[in-house]
Amino acid sequence: MLSWIEIDAQRLRNNIDAFRTSIAASTALMVVVKANAYGHGLETVAPIAAERADWLGVNCLDEAVTITRLGIRKPVVILGHTPLDQLENAVRNSYRQVLYRLDVAQALSQAGDKLGLAAKVHLKIETGTNRQGIPVSQLASFINELKKLPAMEIEGAYTHFANIEDTLDPSFAQSQVHKFREALGIMERGGIRPAQVHASATAGALLYAEMDFSMVRLGIGTYGIWPSRETQIAARERGRLLSLAPVLTWKTRVAQVKDVNAGDYVGYGLTYRASRPMKLVVLPIGYYDGYDRKLSNSGRALIHGQLASVVGRIAMNMTMLDVTDVGADLDDEVVLVGRQGNAEIRVEELAEKIGTIPYEVVARINPLIPRVAVP
């Protein structure tokens, strides 16, 4: 293998267990494994997560089908859009579909009627994020139309916070909860009392127990990554700073060792020039693999438990490291993300260097790279 991802199965279990202790015993826990389990590998993560989760959340039908193929029997919610011509498959497999469009509702109803099954849905309520969702002002008429359709079961209702990770000010989240409770009131007056009501994702579950409702959706925290520095600070202030450990280690091996003379250039664009005689190694990974090009001349990796700097531009399939003071041999193991010896490179470090969030760093790791669970 040119590159591979190791998933620490016990850390994954421990992270989920930590959240279990922070929510009420009566609150259900959905573990979100969308986007290839946040880049960690759906087929590797889902069976482990299912040991602890009450529900699993995915983005699309293909991800839900993968979970079924793995033999997992936990209820699955599709949190993203499913095309009309694929909705029958969702109903056939008892997947729960997010709902905010009447044409989708009609197609689900037809599929349920045809198959003799209930089409279970979770209504997405728009409370301030202005992505997918039913505006509260339109909810009553939407519900009235749903009640005319056969084979429909409104099992859940939920919303999503817009500004809970990046701020210490809870006021906008509180305004969203107010709108969401208004929506629940409209539903109740319409005779609809969904069994599963959820609003909080990782940050909400950490910070605002009063917003948990009957279920929380655990996303990035599953993988031992804090949503943001602000979330960590706020959790500490509230005495809810859980012990979370990253579960992902990204490894590769040295493909070539070479000597470079003082004054020689390294990589495309001549962006790095050796100021002294150097020893470099070439790694068989690059931006195609998800190792961001913005880490050129700024990233670091671990060899022999020591930090080695990225030099030159990261190419599509190759990256160079300065190992002059570290030493390296052919096929030595290199850690791009994770721990080696007493040193560690965290996802947050990469995110800061390339000007993004940890979510993007892990989600963009090439899905073709093998993921392996380790005890």
Write down the overall geometry. elongated
Number of domains: 2
- Tell me, rounded to a whole number, the average pLDDT: 97
CATH topology of the largest domain: TIM Barrel
Helix content: 25-40%
Count the helices. How many? 12
The class by helix and strand makeup works out as alpha/beta
**Rg of Cα set:** 24 Å
CATH superfamily of the largest domain: Alanine racemase
CATH architecture of the largest domain: Alpha-Beta Barrel
The CATH top-level class label of the largest domain: Alpha Beta
Q: What is the percentage of strand-forming residues?
A: 25-35%
Explain what you see.
With 375 residues, the protein is an alpha/beta fold. It has two domains: 9-237, Alpha-Beta Barrel (TIM Barrel); 248-345, Lyase, Ornithine Decarboxylase, Chain A, domain 1 (Beta Barrel). 31% of the residues lie in helices and 26% in strands. It contains twelve helices and 21 strands. It has helices spanning 9-22, 34-38, 42-52, 61-69, 87-92, 102-115, 136-146, 171-189, 202-207, 229-237, 347-354, 358-363; strands spanning 3-8, 28-32, 55-58, 76-78, 96-99, 119-126, 134-135, 152-158, 196-198, 215-218, 248-253, 256-260, 265-266, 272-273, 278-283, 300-303, 306-311, 319-322, 333-340, 343-345, 371-374. Strands 1, 11, 12, 15, 16, 17, 18, 19, 20 and 21 form a ten-stranded mixed sheet that branches. Strands 2, 3, 4, 5, 6, 7, 8, 9 and 10 form a nine-stranded parallel sheet that branches. The protein has a two-stranded antiparallel ribbon with strand order 13-14. The longest helix has 19 residues, at 171-189. The radius of gyration is 24 Å and the shape is elongated. The model has no long low-confidence stretch (mean pLDDT 97).
